[in-house]
Amino acid sequence: MHNESRRRLVGWRGRLCVLVTLGGIAGVANAQTAGADQWHGAVTVYGYFPSLYGETTFPNGASGPTFKIDAHEIVRNLNFAFMGKVHVQKGPWGGSVDFFYADVSESRSGTRDFSVPQIPIPVGVAADLKLGTKSTLLTLNGTYQLVAEPDHDLRLVFGARMYDNRQRLDWHLSAPLVGYPSVSGTSKADKTNWDAIVGVSGRQRFGQDLRWYMPYYVDVGTGDSRFTGQVLFGLGYAFDWGDVTATWRYIDYNFKSGSLIARTSYSGPAVGLTWRF
Q1: What are 123-161's pLDDT values in tens digits?
Q2: Which fold has domain 10-276?
């Protein structure tokens, strides 16, 4: 980025993405839940308001310069997003499949929010940029119940997460740069990573009849990525028919040296309704 020390996160303003999560909340429901020898489940509907951070290098070969772009300086609009989760559990063992997809894009005119490695940008040279990014996260987890108390339950989480990110940059310069006569072009940067992850999830209940609770989830991992991590925490209330929750979710990826996509993260609040069955 033209000023890489700047690390502001730009929200996807004016957009509500409806994220539908199908999940089994085994061992985390209240006393109304059936016995431990039966299958448990729930359906959750979320509204999610994430911000995006990312840093990508777009190669253009001999026809044009190599651009370095910080996505949070460009991307402001969410086109589409979906998140779904299926979790099943019987006794202490369980398993889950979590799916997240986001499509964001934005155009900027006359901007200098870009850099070209080893080439100073002359004064007066600006660019029209259109950046689009499509991200898919697929998490496959096994779970094991560690704690199952009336006011607290805790599960061990272990498995793998796949991250697929496809970015496209369309660019047009107001003037050519030294050594590059072309003033416009298109470049792409794609990455697919698989990483092993381990973590914990659960909820801490409190209040009258233990209906209030604090849900939480933490995982870390590595593999194709140098590091990946996810954190979720918030506040919920359990009714007889289900739950209402307000949470914050953060997903971070740091890729290995030499990768065109150096880092990507999503961060933002979510509100949800859960129907148990």
Answers
A1: 778 888 888 888 899 999 999 999 999 999 999 999 999
A2: Lipocalin (2.40.128)
